[in-house]
Amino acid sequence: MQKNPGRTYLLARLPIAVSMFGHGLDRIPKLQGFSNHLVEQFSKSILPAALVAPFSYLLPFAELLTGVLLILGLFTRYACVLGVLIMLVLIFGSCMIEQWDNVFSQIIYGAYFALLYYFAFYNRYSFDRLVNRVETGKSHIL
C-alpha cells in the first residue's frame, strides 16, 4: 500500500472545514434568531447581554471564514489558530451556562485544529502549496 501524507492531510482537513463552513452558512440567513437564542441562553449567566449579542453576530462569520479557508487550504495555519480561538470562546461560554456535553465536543474540535496546525507541513493539496506557503520541513511556526 502506498502512503501519501498529503492526501491523508487533505482527508483530515476537509471534514472539520465543511463542519465549520456549514455552521456559519446555516446561521447567517437566520442571524437575528440565532442571536436572540444565544442571548436568551446566556441570560442567567454572569455574561452580560452587551457581550453576548455582538459575539452572536460575529460567530457565524468567523465559522464561515474558518471553513472556507480550510476547504481551500489557504492560510491553513492561521485558519487553525482561528478555529482554536473560536473553540476557546465557545468552551468558556458553555462553562458559563453549564453545558458540559458541549464543552467536551468543543475540546475535541480544538484538539483537531491543533493537530491540523501541527501537521500543516503535509498540506500539499491546497492553495497554500500553490503559492509556496507550505514548508516541506517540520517547521511548526505560525
Q: How would you portray this structure in words?
A:
- It is a single chain.
- The protein is elongated.
- Helix content is 72%, strand content 0%.
- The model has no long low-confidence stretch (mean pLDDT 93).
- By secondary structure, it is mainly alpha-helical.
- It has helices at 5-27, 31-41, 49-72, 76-96, 100-118, 127-130.
- It has one domain (5-130).
- The chain contains 6 helices and no strands.
Distance N terminus to C terminus?
Answer: 33 Å
Q: From the helix content, strand content and strand pairing, which structural class follows?
A: mainly alpha
- The figure for the number of domains is 1
What's the Cα radius of gyration?
Answer: 17 Å
Q: Mean of residue pLDDT?
A: 93
Q: What is the element string, with H for helices and E for strands?
A: HHHHHH
Number of helices: 6
Detail the poorly predicted runs: none
How many β-strand runs? 0
Shape: elongated
Helix content: over 70%
Secondary-structure topology with pairs:
Layout lengths: L4 H23 L3 H11 L7 H24 L3 H21 L3 H19 L8 H4 L12
Q: What's this model, at a glance?
A:
Helices cover 72% and strands 0% of the residues. With 142 residues, it is mainly alpha-helical. The two termini are 33 Å apart.
Q: What are the salient characteristics of this protein?
A:
elongated, mainly alpha, 72% helix
